[in-house]
Amino acid sequence: MNQDSIEKPGSEKEWKLIEKLMMSINGEQRKARRWGIFFKLLTFLYLFVAIAMFAGNDMSNLDVEGEFTAMVEVKGVIADGEEASADFIVTGLREAFKAEGVKAVLLRINSPGGSPVQSGYVYDEIKRLRSIYTDIPLYAVISDLGASGAYYIAAAADGIYADKASLVGSIGVVGSGFGFVDVMKKLGVERRQFTSGEHKGFLDPFMPLNADEKNFWQGVLQTTHKQFIGQVKQGRGDKLVDDPKLFSGLVWTGEQALALGLIDGLGSSSYVAREVVGAEKIVDFTPKPSPFEGLVGRLGVYAGKGFATALGVNSSVFELK
């Protein structure tokens, strides 16, 4: 028998199919490697940008020649974890005051207010810094809105300026919520709450309002309001006109606020830097959270709120408004 006539294992068609399959697998592996390299490069690029942004936010490395006016923004709701938190504002103020060449510090405010605790932290820190840097004044400049806790902060300044149409004031405290007792009854839903402590579940929106607890909470709000009024009077002194409406929670335009002694003049940040301070150049010392920090912070807040809701925790909060 001729040796060439002996058949090899498997037909030629089968070998071609196997060869085609192996080439296909090899191609898929090459594609997977390319995508892996791409995503690794993308991750590296993101980390590089995040680090660069974080490094760019280091205000201690600012190199400014000559005298200038330092600026720190108070923008948005004043609350822990927000852009206008006490931590961010105070950090910016400290860097601004200690910077070489600073002639004055501006607080540029556009905020409806917020936490009395956060506002109080900033107020106290302004007073502390002014006692250390006695030759560096601090001015507050209100743009669209400087109300409630934002005005609380502004009251610590050496002078307050606003536009004639700015909204200023709202010196009051509010604590609000909802009551769903009748809705629960109509739906046939029974509220089951277990507490240790006679008043641990007070202000629960699913329970009837208790008169004693209502009076107690009103007392808390009034005490906080008195603290607010005291700080404003301490900061503004005899600049304020003798009018009980000042502390009623009303809000005024900048023009009205000037007549009431709530502000010292009309003007923008550039006007104050140029005409009042005498150093037209403005350098921004406002700290900015990195994108990563902002994302993590918000996820933490949402997770905390969800966890509290799941446990039925009552987190009633009052604000300066």
Brief write-up:
The chain has 321 residues and is of the alpha/beta class.
User: Could you tell me the number of beta strands?
Assistant: 10
SSE class: alpha/beta
Question: What is the mean pLDDT?
Answer: 81
CATH class of the largest domain: Alpha Beta
Strand coverage percent: 5-15%
Fold-level CATH name of the largest domain: 2-enoyl-CoA Hydratase, Chain A, domain 1
Query: What gap, in angstroms, lies between the N and C termini?
Result: 106 Å
Query: The biggest beta sheet, please?
Result: 8 strands, mixed
Q: SSE order in H/E notation?
A: HEHEHEHEEEHHEHEHEHE
Task: Write the CATH architecture name of the largest domain.
Answer: Alpha-Beta Complex
Kindly give the count of domains: 2
Characterize the overall form: flat
Helix content estimate: 40-55%
**Helical segment count:** 9
Q: In terms of per-residue confidence, which ranges show pLDDT below 50 for 5 or more consecutive residues?
A: 299-316
Query: What is the CA-based Rg, rounded?
Result: 31 Å
- Name the CATH superfamily classification of the largest domain: 2-enoyl-CoA Hydratase, Chain A, domain 1
Describe the structure.
With 321 residues, the chain is of the alpha/beta class. The chain has 2 domains: 24-56; 65-320, Alpha-Beta Complex (2-enoyl-CoA Hydratase, Chain A, domain 1), CATH 3.90.226. Helix content is 47%, strand content 15%. The strands form 2 sheets. Strands 1, 2, 3, 4, 5, 7, 8 and 9 form an 8-stranded mixed beta sheet that branches. A two-stranded antiparallel sheet has the order 6-10. α2 (86-98) links the parallel β1 and β2. α2 (86-98) runs parallel beside α3.
